[in-house]
TrEMBL record:
<feature type="region of interest" description="Disordered">
    <location>
        <begin position="1"/>
        <end position="38"/>
    </location>
</feature>
<dbReference type="InterPro" id="IPR007317">
    <property type="entry name" value="GET4"/>
</dbReference>
<protein>
    <submittedName>
        <fullName>Golgi to ER traffic protein 4 homolog isoform X1</fullName>
    </submittedName>
</protein>
<comment type="similarity">
    <text>Belongs to the GET4 family.</text>
</comment>
<feature type="compositionally biased region" description="Low complexity">
    <location>
        <begin position="29"/>
        <end position="38"/>
    </location>
</feature>
<dbReference type="InterPro" id="IPR011990">
    <property type="entry name" value="TPR-like_helical_dom_sf"/>
</dbReference>
<dbReference type="GO" id="GO:0071818">
    <property type="term" value="C:BAT3 complex"/>
</dbReference>
<keyword id="KW-0963">Cytoplasm</keyword>
<keyword id="KW-0813">Transport</keyword>
<comment type="subunit">
    <text>Component of the BAG6/BAT3 complex, at least composed of BAG6, UBL4A and GET4/TRC35. Interacts with BAG6; the interaction is direct and localizes BAG6 to the cytosol. Interacts with GET3.</text>
</comment>
<dbReference type="Pfam" id="PF04190">
    <property type="entry name" value="GET4"/>
</dbReference>
<dbReference type="GO" id="GO:0045048">
    <property type="term" value="P:protein insertion into ER membrane"/>
</dbReference>
C-alpha cells in the first residue's frame, strides 16, 4: 500500500516522499496538499493535518513509540503518515480509513491508548465528511475500536457518542441497532451490566439481553429480585414499542435463570403479571389491561417506576390518553421523558431513548 504511494509521490518531484528524504528528516517540512480550507468555516482535524508539518500532522496525546508503524507495510511511523496524507489529499477516503484503522489497532496493541483514540476519532471524522452509508463491516470496525479503548477514558465516551450519531444516518434516532448490540456485548464482557443493558434495549437482540440479565441477577442481585430484573427490561422494551424483543427477553430469561421454576404459571406473581401483560398487548383490549393492572398492584408497588411504564404502555397499545402533566420533575422527569415518549411523532419502529436507565 505505502510503496505505491511513495513511488507516485517521488515521481511528482516535490511530493511527500521527496520532502521526507531530502534534508535529513521530516521536521519542519510540509506535505503538499490540494485541500483548500475556507477561513469562514470550522477547520477539521483532517484538514489541519494536511496543512501542518508532517511531524505534527496530528498532535498525539502521548509520546509515540518509534517502533510503532502506522500500518504493517510502512517501514516507519512518519512514512505511514506520509501515506495517509497522500490518501487524504486525493480524497481517497476508503484507503485512508483502512490505514487509520490499522494504525489505531497497532497503537492499541502497543499500549498507546491516547494515540489510538486520536486515530479512532479520525476514522469517525472521515465517515462523517465522506457521508459514508452505514454498513455492517463499518459498524464492526467501530465496535472493535471501542472494545480496545480504556473503559474509564473520556475519549471512549466521546467516541461512542459520535459513532452512534453517525450510525443513525441523520434520522434523529439513537443509533443503529446493530451497533448498539455490538457495544452491549463488549460492555457485558467488561461486566458493565448497566451500560450493557441500555444498549441491549436499543438493539434487536432480546435473547442476548436475557442472557446478560441472568448473569447480572445471579452475580449482583438478591435472590428475591430475580423477577424484577426481567420485569423492568420487558416494560422498557414495550415503552420503546419493541414487542418482539420484550417477548424474547421474558421467555429466555425465565427459561435460563436457575432460580426460576419453569412456567407459566410462575411462583412469583410479578412474572405472572408480565406474562399476562404480553398476552394483553397482543390482544389490545383496554379492559383486560385495566383489570390486570388493578389485580397486581401489590406486586407493582415494589418499584414506583412500574406504574409510570404502564401508563406509557397503555398509551401505546391500548389507546389510553396521555397525562397532561408529569408528577415528576428534575432528573427523574428528564429520564422518564427520554424513555417514555419525548417524541410522539416517531413511527412504529421508533426508539427514542437518550440516556441509560439504571437498575435500582
Amino acid at each position: 500500500m505505502c510503496s505505491k504511494w511513495d513511488s507516485e509521490a517521488g515521481q511528482r518531484g516535490g511530493g511527500a516522499r521527496g520532502e521526507h528524504r531530502d534534508g535529513g528528516g521530516p521536521q519542519g517540512r510540509s506535505v503538499q496538499s490540494s485541500v483548500r480550507v475556507s477561513p469562514t468555516r470550522e477547520v477539521s482535524i483532517l484538514e489541519l493535518s494536511l496543512s501542518r508539518p508532517l511531524s505534527a500532522a496530528l498532535t498525539l496525546s502521548s509520546p509515540v513509540d518509534p517502533s510503532v508503524t502506522l500500518c504493517p507495510t510502512c517501514s516507519s511511523y512518519h512514512r505511514g503518515w506520509t501515506c495517509l496524507m497522500v490518501y487524504m489529499s486525493q480524497n481517497k477516503h476508503t484507503e485512508a480509513r483502512e490505514l487509520m484503522c490499522s494504525g489505531a489497532l497497532l497503537f492499541f496493541s502497543h499500549g498507546q491508548q491516547n494515540s489510538a483514540a486520536d486515530l479512532s476519532m479520525l476514522v469517525l471524522e472521515s465517515l462523517e465528511k465522506a457521508e459514508v452509508e452505514v454498513a455492517d463491516e463499518l459498524l464492526e470496525n467501530l465496535a472493535k475500536l471501542f472494545s480496545l479503548m480504556d473503559p474509564n477514558s473520556p475519549e471512549r465516551v466521546a467516541f461512542v457518542s459520535r459513532a452512534l450519531k453517525w450510525s443513525s444516518g441523520g434520522s434523529g434516532k439513537l443509533g443503529h441497532p446493530r451497533l448498539h448490540q455490538l457495544l452491549a456485548l463488549t460492555l457485558w464482557k467488561e461486566q458493565n451490566y448497566c451500560e450493557s443493558r441500555y444498549h441491549f434495549l436499543h438493539s434487536a437482540d432480546g435473547e442476548g439481553c436475557a442472557h446478560m440479565l441472568v448473569e447480572y441477577s445471579t452475580s449482583r442481585g438478591f435472590r428475591s429480585e430475580v423477577d424484577m430484573f426481567v420485569a423492568q427490561a420487558v416494560l422498557q422494551f414495550l415503552c420503546l414499542k419493541n414487542k418482539s424483543s420484550a417477548s424474547v427477553v421474558f421467555t429466555t430469561y425465565t427459561q435460563k435463570h436457575p432460580s426460576i421454576e419453569h412456567g407459566p404459571p410462575f411462583v412469583q406473581p410479578l412474572l405472572n403479571f408480565i406474562w399476562f401483560l404480553l398476552l394483553a398487548v397482543d390482544g389490545g383490549k383496554l379492559t383486560v389491561f385495566t383489570v390486570l393492572c388493578e389485580q397486581y398492584q401489590p406486586s407493582l408497588r415494589r418499584d414506583p417506576m412500574y406504574n409510570e411504564y404502564l401508563d406509557r404502555i397503555g398509551q401505546l397499545f391500548f389507546g389510553v390518553p396521555p397525562k397532561q402533566t408529569s408528577s415528576y420533575g428534575g432528573l427523574l422527569g428528564n429520564l422518564l421523558s427520554s424513555l417514555m415518549g419525548a417524541s410522539e411523532q416517531e413511527g412504529e419502529d421508533s426508539q427514542d431513548d437518550s440516556s441509560p436507565i439504571e437498575l435500582d
